[in-house]
Structures are given as C-alpha cells and as structure tokens.
Amino acid sequence: MNDQNAPAPHTQDGPRRPLLYGVGLGPGDPSLMTLRAVEAIAAADVVAFHSARHGRSIARSIAARHIRPDHIEEPLVYPLTTETTDHPGGYRGAMEEFYEAAAARLAAHLDAGRTVAVLAEGDPLFYGSYMHMHKRLADRYPTEVIPGVTSVSAAAARLGTPLAEADEVLTILPGTLPEEELAARLASTDAAVVMKLGRTFPKVRAALADSGRLAEAHYVERATMPGERTDRIADVDETTVPYFSVAVVPSPTNAGTRENTGVGEVVVVGTGPAGPRWLTPETRGALAAADDLVGYTTYLDRVPERPGQRRHGSDNKVESERATFALDLARRGRRVAVVSGGDPGVFAMATAVVEAAAEKEYADIPVRVLPGVTAAHAAAARAGAPLGHDYATISLSDRLKPWEVIAARLRAAAAADLALALYNPGSASRTWQVGQARELLLEHRSPETPVVLARDVGGPTESVRAVRLADLDPSEVDMRTILLVGSSQTQWVRRDGAPDLVWTPRRYPEA
Ligand code: SAH
C-alpha cells in the first residue's frame, strides 16, 4: 500500500508527533535484526526503503515478515546504478536531486505526524543510503538511529577467523578506491576488509596481490543471505562477483605470517626522523612483511613488535657487517628489512647494503631501497622553507672522511651561495667541528645569515629556533641536531606570539 493521502494517525492525546527511524536490519538473515529494529517497524506508519530501478529491495526483503498491509510503503528508487547519466550535474548532480526528492517525500509524511522507518541493510550509518536522508531530516524531526550488525561482522563470523586482536589495526576500505591507494593501505595495515566488490573485484584482487596479501585474503559473498558463499580471493571467478560481497584479510596473529614465496630479499628502509607520523605507508608495509629486522637498536626500537618476527639489533658502528649479515639471511629465503632513521640513503644503511650487494657473491639477492623522510626536510618544514632553493647536504662527521675534505666542501658550497643542511654536526666526542664550520662559512656569508638549529625534530624534546651565523654556539649542538644554514637570499622574520619564519626565495633578485 502506498497512500500519500492517508489521514494523520491520532492518539487519545491529539495528533501524534513525527518520528524518523533509521533502522539497521543486519547483513541479511532476518533473525539477525535487533529487537529494537522490529519494534521500530511495528511502531511505524510508513516503511521506506531504497531500491534500484528493477524495484527489488534487499532491505525490504530482510524486513518483509514485519511489514503489514496497513504500512504505507515508500520505495525510494535510485534513478541510476551505473555512473553514466545525461543529468547536467553528472552522476553527483543526479544523485543529489534524487536524495532531495526522497527526503522531501519522507518530510511530507513526517509533517503529517507520521512515524517513518527507513530500512537500511547492515548498519544505517556505515556506507548506507539512509545517511543521505538522515543528513537532510535529522535536524528537523525527532530521529532515532538503530544500529545493525554490519557485513564486516557477518563476514568474519562466517569465516570463523578472528578479525583483529590486541594491538592489531583493522582497516575498512571501499573497493572503489584507486588500485594504488588500496595496495598502499593493504600493505600498511594488519587486518582489512574491502567492501563494495562487484565490478571493482579485479582491481581489488590486483591490489591484494601487489601488497603481498592475496594468499591470506578470503572472500565472502552474501554473508547470512540466501546464496551465501565463501572462498579464497585467489580462487574466485571475477565475472560472478556481486556487489554484496567483501574481501577479508584477517588478523595476522591468527593467519600466520604473510605470504613468503621462499625467495628472500633485503629491503632497506628509513623510519623517518622520529615517530610513526613520518613513516611512509610503503615502509610500514615492508616492516610488517619482514621476517627479520636488522639495524641500530635505537631505530629498531621505533618499530612495533610482531609475533614471529626476529630482531637483530646492533650498535651504530659496524655497517658493512650488518649489510652482509642481512644479505646472508636473504640468501636463506628470509625477507629482511634493514632499518635506518630518516631516509636510508642519507648518511645511512642503503649505501652499505648496496655496496655489499654489488659484490659477485650476492649478485642474485634482490635488494630494494625505499625512500623516507630525511631530517633536513623535517627540520626545514618546521622553520618555514629554508631549503626552498638550491642547497647542499654535508655531514660534519670526520669519522669516515678527513676534515680537509669537509672544509673544502663547506668553502665551495659557501662560495656558490648554496644553503646548507649540516648532518652529524657534533657529538660528545666531536665538539670543535661546528665552530670550525662557522668560521669557514663566515669567510663568504654575512654574520646575520640565519641558521636553523633543529634538535630532536618530531620527538618529545623537539626544539627548533633560528640564530645568527655569528652567534652559532657549538655547545648547543649534539647528535640529535641538524643545522640549516641560509644562503645570501634567505629571509628571517620574527613574529609576535608565533614562531619565527625562515625561507629562501625561489628566485634571485636579478632573475
Ligand atoms: N638517515 C638520516 C640521517 C642519519 S645521520 C636522515 O635521513 O635523516 C644522523 C644525523 O641526522 C643526526 O646527527 C642529525 O644531524 C640528523 N637527525 C636525524 N634525526 C633527527 C631529528 N629528529 N632531529 C634533528 N636532527 C636529526
């Protein structure tokens, strides 16, 4: 029955107040509806549901046994299901118009004092059509949202596999995302559920393969509905996949370690200057996928522990031994991550690993270097844009090269008017280098040149401030400090109540 002219229902106390229900119905099996969902439908005058143009509504079929002949049924029929339309506003314009019209129809019932139950498969506020009605009506009418069992819970229950436990992160992804985005997210999370399969299936499967998660991935079609089916994603015929299906990558603790093809490799990664914020998704994925972690203990400590993974921490001095150790592990079929701070190619482990891998005996061992955020860039970002034009990167450590080489490079860079990023400026045992560097630079640079003194950038004891080159004090510099020295063009503005700004313009005045 669909009678727009039905009289407003009355109670003994006069006209009834309007009420909007967003009713979560669960994933398909009607016995997975909540008691509250059943009560709401029983109390409703109007039962509304979305459907495609063919008119069949999954939501209505789940709730069918609770729909009475005296309910006013309000089908909200989508104008299109594919993303092609001749609407002047395109797909979004057509949908917007449809939602507006649908909300207006529900508002007319509410204005007449009726109780309207909008049916929603699964949970109403989880990728559901109901939310488009909610956003247009809930601020105007009393509204109750009734949560429902989602397809995520239903799929996990059907597989009988734990989804996530303890510190594991579960990521929910719509299959409509671009393949690269899916692969990056899949590689960097613990457990995942990918929704909205159907036509997106080939892309989702490719992303699972690309992220090394395909072997662990399960498929659940129509969980708890008639026609339910489970399989391994790898074995699914992609021409048969309906929209009501999900991919599940379950808890790594319970699924065992990630796909190991038995071919070892060495991946050289950098954890960024500090903390997880500057760890790239690619690096996070590589760390999660590794069987063995090799590196300086300080950097290994930044990586969360994983069951089944082995750690080989060492002090910071024996880089070449660490590199051959990693290559030997890889030869035995292990996936090894060699861990540095910052970017692995900037005064860090990538060189040592590549150098060792270039030896004949390691010619068949795959080696990959993944880029990371380097300290100079993190420090520059904090200060403004001091490295916004040409700059040189120099390590002040004379442990691996003579000071004469460093001095010659500082002079040359200063004469060329390059801004400078100075790594390893000093430590407990190297205390005079900064003073020497300052004197060399002052041969070419004004004493007013801004120097950004950045310590523990991104860490708990971060401090970033600018000083005049002439005032640069070596005693303020330690192992956790990087110095950014301006060029003749670098600007430094002190601001009231806000940090100073330091930047190097991208053009010269004569240009
Ligand atoms: N691979 C690293 C650099 C290793 S050399 C990178 O790309 O950043 C070590 C030097 O890096 C330190 O002496 C210091 O100069 C700099 N550094 C690393 N992390 C830093 C941080 N969080 N804040 C300031 N300087 C840092």
Summarize the structure.
With 511 residues, the protein is an alpha/beta fold. It has helices at residues 35-43, 58-63, 90-111, 130-137, 151-159, 179-188, 201-210, 252-255, 281-289, 297-300, 319-331, 349-357, 375-383, 403-415, 433-442; strands at residues 10-11, 14-15, 19-24, 46-51, 72-77, 115-120, 143-146, 170-174, 191-195, 218-221, 229-232, 245-249, 265-270, 292-296, 310-314, 335-340, 367-369, 384-385, 391-395, 419-423, 450-455, 463-468, 481-485, 491-495, 498-503.
Could you describe the 3D structure shown?
The protein is α/β, with parallel strands linked by helices. The chain has four domains: 10-148, Tetrapyrrole methylase, N-terminal domain (Cobalt-precorrin-4 Transmethylase, domain 1); 153-254, Tetrapyrrole methylase, C-terminal domain (Methyltransferase, Cobalt-precorrin-4 Transmethylase, Domain 2, 2-Layer Sandwich); 265-370, Cobalt-precorrin-4 Transmethylase, domain 1, CATH 3.40.1010.10; 376-503, 2-Layer Sandwich (Methyltransferase, Cobalt-precorrin-4 Transmethylase, Domain 2). 28% of the residues lie in helices and 23% in strands. It has 15 helices and 25 strands. A five-stranded parallel beta sheet has the order 5-4-6-3-7, with helices on both faces. A five-stranded mixed beta sheet has the order 8-9-12-10-11, sandwiched between helices. The protein has a five-stranded parallel beta sheet with strand order 15-14-16-13-17, with helices on both faces. α6 packs across α7. The longest helix is centred in the first third of the chain and has 22 residues, at 90-111. The chain is elongated and about 95 Å long. The structure holds S-adenosyl-L-homocysteine.
